[in-house]
Write a structure and sequence with these properties.
- This protein has 320 residues and is of the alpha+beta class.
- 66% of the residues lie in helices and 10% in strands.
- The protein is built from ten helices and five strands, in the order H-H-H-H-H-H-H-H-E-E-E-H-E-H-E.
- Strands 1, 2, 3, 4 and 5 form a five-stranded mixed β-sheet that branches.
- Helix 1 (8-31) packs antiparallel against helix 4 (113-140).
- The protein starts with 7 loop residues before the first helix and ends with a strand.
């Protein structure tokens, strides 16, 4: 499955894009198609992006240290942002530049047969990688979500980046085929240049979406509301709990969530009992929500009767 631990979709995308880049540039060399050049650039950028994602996955697994007590999980989100920047600047920018150059200095295209063969092969390979990524996204999406909602809710760049880039690749191949077809059918090479510009625009739009998602995660995006609400319900079900303040969560990685919550317990608990209740609650939370790796619970507003017995503080903080 494609995830930060086993990124099969990323490995598949690297192999597919590297192969496709070679055959696209070969076809562009022999036919002179601007759209094929843009598609070749697209595949090269995608290959580099997947390699950067692998780098981010590897760095995010580094253990916590004194400088990074919560670990290095957000390294993955940083490299996801770098991927978006490269896709926008190199992928989108160079494709648009290539299209404008072709419009200014149009060249007649040779026999388009090889272009169609290469584009058909690219569509097939990209489609296989896209299906693999979509299946992983469907496996992880919540009940009632459509694919677009699942994409926006995903916290794993190894999934949403691959899905977005492959969707752009399939759209780009289609646009390239249409541009090449119109150029030969109308005997007007301008359409090939227009196709290159459209491909650049598609890449730029996808890059903006990826940058937006990466920015939200880097700034400290909360866990999904089903987790937040589920944690609150678990705490409220405990007979010793009087009130629960809204839990605070933050993603440090796709499957690494920090949870901080303040709970008001009933006044009859001793300090030892309070510690036992907190330990039990932590175990329940991690059992039901394995992605919640770090838990900080503050026992708040314990009444004066507890302090008078001398067996508990007015507040207690427990952490994992």
């Amino acid at each position: 499955m494609a995830s930060a631990n086993k990124p099969i979709a990323v490995y598949g995308a690297i192999a597919a894009n590297a192969l496709i880049a070679v055959i696209k540039f070969t076809a562009a060399f022999f036919t002179g198609s601007s759209a094929m050049v843009s598609e070749g650039i697209h595949s090269v950028v995608d290959t580099g992006n997947q390699l950067l994602l692998l780098l981010g996955i590897r760095k995010s697994k580094k253990p916590a240290d004194e400088s990074h007590p919560f670990g290095h999980g957000k390294d993955l989100y940083f490299w996801g942002l770098v991927v978006a920047m490269l896709l926008f600047s190199i992928g989108g920018g160079m494709s648009i530049y290539e299209g404008i150059s072709h419009l200014r200095h149009p060249k007649e295209l040779s026999d388009p047969t090889w272009n169609y063969v290469v584009l058909a092969l690219a569509f097939l390979i990209e489609g296989i990688v896209f299906i693999i990524a979509i299946r992983e996204l469907q496996r992880r999406k919540q009940k009632g979500m459509n694919l677009w909602q699942a994409m926006k809710a995903s916290k794993d760049p190894a999934i949403y980046v691959v899905v977005a880039e492959d969707a752009a690749a399939l759209a780009g191949v289609t646009v390239a085929a249409v541009g090449i077809f119109l150029s030969h059918w109308l005997n007007d090479p301008v359409w090939d240049g227009v196709a290159s510009i459209v491909i650049g625009g598609i890449l730029a739009l996808v890059a903006v979406f990826l940058a937006y998602e990466s920015k939200a995660l880097l700034l400290g995006e909360s866990a999904d509301q089903t987790i937040v609400q589920g944690v609150r319900e678990l705490a409220e079900q405990d007979a010793t709990v009087h009130a629960v303040k809204s839990p605070l969560t933050m993603h440090f990685g796709p499957d690494d969530v920090l949870l901080a919550m303040s709970i008001e317990f009933k006044s009859h608990l001793s300090g030892v009992e309070l510690a036992g209740v907190i330990d039990n609650l932590q175990s329940q939370i991690q059992k039901k929500f394995p992605s919640v790796k770090k838990i900080f619970i503050e026992a708040d507003s314990i009444t004066e009767s507890v302090k008078e017995r001398g067996d508990g503080d007015s507040s207690a903080v427990d952490a994992i």
